[in-house]
From TrEMBL:
<dbReference type="InterPro" id="IPR007197">
    <property type="entry name" value="rSAM"/>
</dbReference>
<comment type="similarity">
    <text>Belongs to the anaerobic coproporphyrinogen-III oxidase family. HemW subfamily.</text>
</comment>
<dbReference type="GO" id="GO:0006779">
    <property type="term" value="P:porphyrin-containing compound biosynthetic process"/>
</dbReference>
<dbReference type="InterPro" id="IPR058240">
    <property type="entry name" value="rSAM_sf"/>
</dbReference>
<dbReference type="GO" id="GO:0051539">
    <property type="term" value="F:4 iron, 4 sulfur cluster binding"/>
</dbReference>
<feature type="domain" description="Radical SAM core">
    <location>
        <begin position="3"/>
        <end position="239"/>
    </location>
</feature>
<keyword id="KW-0349">Heme</keyword>
<comment type="function">
    <text>Probably acts as a heme chaperone, transferring heme to an unknown acceptor. Binds one molecule of heme per monomer, possibly covalently. Binds 1 [4Fe-4S] cluster. The cluster is coordinated with 3 cysteines and an exchangeable S-adenosyl-L-methionine.</text>
</comment>
<dbReference type="InterPro" id="IPR013785">
    <property type="entry name" value="Aldolase_TIM"/>
</dbReference>
<dbReference type="InterPro" id="IPR034505">
    <property type="entry name" value="Coproporphyrinogen-III_oxidase"/>
</dbReference>
<dbReference type="InterPro" id="IPR006638">
    <property type="entry name" value="Elp3/MiaA/NifB-like_rSAM"/>
</dbReference>
<keyword id="KW-0963">Cytoplasm</keyword>
<dbReference type="InterPro" id="IPR004559">
    <property type="entry name" value="HemW-like"/>
</dbReference>
<keyword id="KW-0411">Iron-sulfur</keyword>
<keyword id="KW-0479">Metal-binding</keyword>
<keyword id="KW-0004">4Fe-4S</keyword>
<keyword id="KW-0143">Chaperone</keyword>
């Protein structure tokens, strides 16, 4: 018999390489000038999966996500072997979602049919902008024509397709974004991820920003971009279901829902994180970030885990709120009580309701309002205090 934890069960596979490093990105991604030995990486993924499978027998996998980095640099055979390994260890839901993040270059688009044959049924394309000048400024290797072509090939190849755009870019106007967003909704089948540009410490964009050489929209203008994004996508039939994610109802990314509904997930590959309910405790796992060090660890001891911590009831409650309040469906206060062992203070809840930071959906569910989304960490801190 298999069991499904509250929120579901998924597997995240991190591919840590990119063809070039984008100047705004602080994901765990590395550029290698020598070809990556994919056979050796597959063997390491197989071993790390086996390690986590021994912890989580009798689970049914509802989603698998190849993230990065740039997973579309993986050979189709690499993806196939990892999927075969997963199927050897766990039962797979008949309706499993298997997503892969792809960069929209022509070389990568050529591999799409191979990924589909391997079992991938959803692709998320890193389009980022529908404007050549901005794509260059973002340091991207593709242009708009290439992105449109990749979208078309992906649409013909996969049952489900999403793409990412970054907005509130240096010099971008709200009107310019509106036109781009209208085009994006037309191109998108049923899902879009729309991220406001974040200036991440340690990136070249951060240094330019500090030096006054990169001007990004101030918080008020950022809020205007955000409002427009929410209103327009809702009008056009792709409403937000999470802070940055938009879908036609029913087309939400099931993998991301596992995170936000505080389900369980195995995270394998350099820098991956996991959350696993084992017995009465939920554990937080983290994997070595550096790709070759990870390889060496796995080859030596069967996994690259550098952290494996039991989460206290309080931490679980906090995490549930932090993840769940990102969702338009909000959180269930009874589940919060079950996880944290305490209830939300009614006075604090009333305060937040009165200030318009959260709203009640019914007796047990609350969600953040649009104003609440802007100060989500503070809302969570208040509710969990
Ligand atoms: C891990 S990346 C993987 C996708 C793929 N490598 C690509 O870039 O096309 C996931 C997404 O995060 C977004 N992203 C990365 N850095 C960001 C930043 N500093 N601000 C906003 N969005 C960012 C991009 O839209 C990107 O597509
Ligand atoms: S944004 Fe994507 S392609 Fe660019 S460095 Fe980050 S992970 Fe790689």
């Amino acid at each position: 018999m298999t069991t499904t934890p509250d929120g579901g069960f998924g597997i995240y596979v991190h591919w840590p390489f990119c063809a070039a490093k984008c100047p705004y990105c602080d994901f765990n991604s590395h550029v290698r000038h020598q070809p990556v030995d994919q056979d050796r990486f597959v063997a390491a993924f197989e071993r790390e999966l086996a390690h986590f499978a021994a912890w989580t027998p009798n689970r049914t996998v509802q989603s698998i996500f190849f993230g990065g980095g740039t997973p579309s640099l993986m050979l189709p055979r690499t993806v196939e072997r990892i999927l075969e390994a997963i199927a050897r260890h766990w039962a797979i839901d008949t309706d499993v979602e298997i997503s892969l993040e792809a960069n929209p270059s022509s070389v990568e688009a050529e591999r799409f049919r191979g990924y589909r044959a391997a079992g991938v049924n959803r692709v998320s394309l890193g389009v980022q902008a529908l404007n050549d000048q901005d794509l260059r400024q973002l340091g991207r290797l593709h242009d708009v024509a290439g992105a449109l072509q990749a979208i078309e090939i992906a649409r013909e190849t996969f049952p489900r397709l999403s793409f990412d755009l970054i907005y509130a870019r240096p010099g971008q106007t709200v009107t310019g974004w509106e036109a781009e967003l209208r085009q994006a909704v037309k191109l998108a089948a049923d899902h879009l991820s729309l991220y406001q540009l974040t200036i991440e410490e340690g990136t070249p964009f951060f240094n330019l920003y500090q030096a006054g050489k990169l001007i990004v929209p101030d918080p008020d203008l950022g809020a205007e971009f955000y409002e427009l994004t929410q209103d327009l996508t809702a009008d056009l039939g792709l409403p937000a279901y999470e802070v940055s994610n938009h879908a036609r109802p029913g087309a939400e990314c099931r993998h991301n829902l596992v995170y936000w509904r505080y389900g369980d997930y195995v995270g394998v590959g350099p820098g991956a994180h996991g959350r696993l309910s084992l017995g009465a405790t939920k554990r937080a796992t983290a994997i070595e970030r550096h790709p070759e060090t990870w390889l060496a660890h796995v080859e030596e001891r069967g996994h690259g885990m550098v952290e494996d911590l039991p989460l206290s009831d309080e931490e679980q409650g906090d995490e549930y709120l932090l993840m769940g309040l990102r969702l338009i469906e909000g959180v269930d206060m009874r589940r919060y009580e079950r996880l944290s062992g305490r209830s939300i203070d009614p006075r604090r809840l009333n305060d937040l309701l009165e200030h318009g930071m959260v709203e009640k959906l019914d007796e047990t569910r609350v969600r953040a309002t649009r104003d609440g989304f802007f100060v989500l960490d503070a809302v969570v801190a208040d509710l969990a205090a």
